[in-house]
Amino acid sequence: EVQLVQSGAEVKKPGESLRISCKGSGYTFTNYWIGWVRQMPGKGLEWMGIIYPGDSDSRYNPSFQGRVTISADKSISTAYLQWGSLKASDTAIYYCARRGYGSSEWFGPWGQGTLVTASS
Amino acid sequence: QSALTQPRSVSGSPGQSVTISCTGTSSDVGNYNFVSWYQQHPGKAPKLIIYDVNKWPSGVPDRFSGSKSGTTASLTISGLQAEDEADYYCCSYAGTFTYVFGSGTKVTVL
């Protein structure tokens, strides 16, 4: 079974750094792009960026470029989303999702989500 | 990247059909046949229900159907059921492995 399992909820103070993870299993991790999606409280989905674990090629939504870094460690089938300095406005649920294969475009399955709370 | 435009809410009675629109631009919806739709129940992760405009993933009932005309894609739910009450999001490919989601639509089953 293809699965993405994300790290647990985090509570941090503004200005702190943070890295959350997304571990893939049940498939060849290096062959599929992994995307990250933000959902702020009571709001919709926002596409943040995507990475190809095979060679770490990554793309970002301009709205998130420079604010977050997407990376991957193919040796442990894990993708990461990290912040150098959190803001209160980063409080949200963050989902990872596997991109479809070949010439199709879709995201699935999705991880269970990681709640990040940045509050003083 | 501006979010694709969806109606904030739609509603229907059990057994009826509802259609959700998703309007983009010539840079995303209008330029690619790569629109996907996701269903999200409260407190749950999104779930893929349509991809490449009108294709079904395994296990998704054919009560859900997708279409596209120009810069607007649509999701139709036929034979509305209570469990279809959820938020629905469209997503379009926008070139060079970038994507944009819709603003989301809440479907209420009356």
Q: What does this 3D model show about the protein?
A:
The complex is a heterodimer of chains A (120) and B (110). In chain A, a hairpin with a 4-residue loop joins strand 5 and strand 6 (57-60). Chain A has strands spanning 3-6, 10-12, 18-25, 34-39, 45-52, 57-60, 68-73, 78-83, 92-99, 107-110, 114-118. Chain A is an all-beta fold and 120 residues long. With 110 residues, chain B is mostly beta strands. Chain B has strands at 9-12, 18-23, 35-40, 47-50, 64-69, 72-77, 86-93, 99-101, 105-109. In chain B, the strands form two sheets. In chain B, strands 1, 3, 4, 7, 8 and 9 form a six-stranded mixed β-sheet that branches. Chain B has a three-stranded antiparallel β-sheet with strand order 2-6-5, with no helix packed on it. Chain B is globular, with a radius of gyration of 13 Å. Chain B starts with 8 loop residues before the first strand and ends with a strand. The mean pLDDT of chain B is 96. Chain A binds chain B through residues 33, 35, 37, 44-47, 50, 59, 61-63, 95, 97, 100, 104-113, and chain B through 1, 3, 32, 34, 36, 38, 40, 45-48, 51-52, 55, 57, 87, 89, 91, 93, 96-104.
Gist of the model:
With 120 residues, chain A is mainly beta.
Strand content of chain A: over 45%
Secondary structure: number of strands of chain A: 11
User: Which structural class fits the helix and strand makeup of chain A?
Assistant: mainly beta
The count of helical stretches of chain A stands at: 0
Estimated radius of gyration of chain A: 14 Å
Number of helices of chain B: 0
What distance separates the N and C termini of chain A?
40 Å
Radius of gyration of chain B: 13 Å
Question: Low-confidence runs of chain A (pLDDT<50, min 5 residues)?
Answer: none
Q: How would you describe the shape of chain B?
A: globular
Average pLDDT figure of chain B: 96
Portion in strands of chain B: 35-45%
